[in-house]
Amino acid sequence: MQAIRLFIKDDSDIKSASSPTASEDIHLAVHPDPVSGKDIVLWDDITAAFDDVIQIRSGTFVQSFLKGADFKILDPLRIAAVPGVILDVVVRNKAELSLESLKKSLPGSEADENKPPTSDISITVSGRSPAYGIENVAMAAAMNNDNPTLKLLSRGQETEKDNKSPPTPGNNTPPTLQDAAPKTQAPGSPQETAANAAKNIARTMMNATLGDNKALNALGDMYRDGRGVCQDYRAAMDRYTKAAGQENADAQCNIGQLYHNGHGVNLDYTLAVHWYQKAINQGHTRAKYNLGTIYQGYYRDYAKAAACFLEAANEGFAPAQCSLGSLHQRGSGVPQDYSLAMEWYRKASEQEHTEAQYNIGHLYHQGYSVAQDHFQAMDWYLKAAEKGHAVAQASAGVMYQHGQGVPQDDSLALDWFQRAATQGNANAQLYLGLTYEYGLGVIQDKKAKEWYKKAADRGVDDAKGRLKVLEQQGNSV
């Protein structure tokens, strides 16, 4: 790691932005440079933390960009790391910015975004993350502002909408949820430029400091997911709790989800249900779905799970539509009905729900509720497989290997098996073992034993059987 600290350039010379006791250092990742052979710090990492950087200094020595053998500056820009030394990041001196003037500089304001703001904010960045320094400035601005009720443009409504679409847990997995990922570019997300990310983080943190419940919930999401700040579930819980105290339904659902997953708190389904119910009392769709997953996975009460899923499904929530389809397919808590399962899967697939796309392929493959159709099955498997669905990838491999719905192709079968196996799919690991043992599209190889071992460790009996056979044959293939 390379330690750096903020310096500000005034009209005459370079001076420290604050006293040594007040200034805090941050640390950036160091990378080995394949060109120069040195440890380096990427310029993009520096500019992501500080705006308007002029140069980097080590004492009075200016750290220049590294050059190649032709004396041209290497791309991407980089400087040599200096172990054990705190480098000074020199930026232009800027006037202190009022809350109102910062508002005009943020995306979505009436100010022309193509023109540089007339003033900006200079910050001291804390050691945990650049965003923490921005939060400190936001607090100071709020305390010194004559009108503390002033709120900047908020992403709250957009966040409220986005937070209602978590990924779907598998039908036979323990009742834990992945945290909902916003569909839009959220503060701190990789899709944003560093400048826009910093502005959106600042906007969210300032509004949260001013007590805006939507911003508090959005800031909780950032801490939960590690977007723009270091991941910190306790900090997320703190923000969610403040927002939930203002009856923010998203925050109530998110608190339930932390208890549901045991993130930053002891796993507690009773408290998860309590908070989900609070959000449901306000009509929160995702909370209905999440409550259904607890009834399904923990309490094994499939009838109550189906009732929860049905409410959320009727409100257009794709994960609930898919889960309800799965219950109808298995006849769990509801009458078994493949046609109804297909209907719900199709509704979810219209929203590009990956699990639903795989399930439709499976129904076509097996001929449940529809005439068996390998072409349709393969089409749906590929839709899900190309999005990274491991079971669909393994299924596509089987279809290629047997020439079902597509021309027979051992090479493509091998490719799909490898994609699924590297994600930990046990059946794909077994298929790879068979592929290498019998030389299907590849030269026979002792890799067969490696893949059988991986599958056997995941409890696949056929893989255990093949391992015994190979051991009896003296590990030969």
Automatic annotation (TrEMBL):
Q: Which SMART domains match?
A: SEL1 (SM00671)
- Record-stated family: Belongs to the sel-1 family.
Biased region (Polar residues) positions are 116-126
- Organism, by scientific name, is Linnemannia schmuckeri
- Its recorded name reads HCP-like protein
| Ranges for region Disordered | 106-126, 156-194
User: What's the domain of life for this entry?
Assistant: Eukaryota
| Stored InterPro entries | Sel1-like (IPR006597), Sel1_AlgK (IPR050767), TPR-like_helical_dom_sf (IPR011990)
Pfam families linked: Sel1
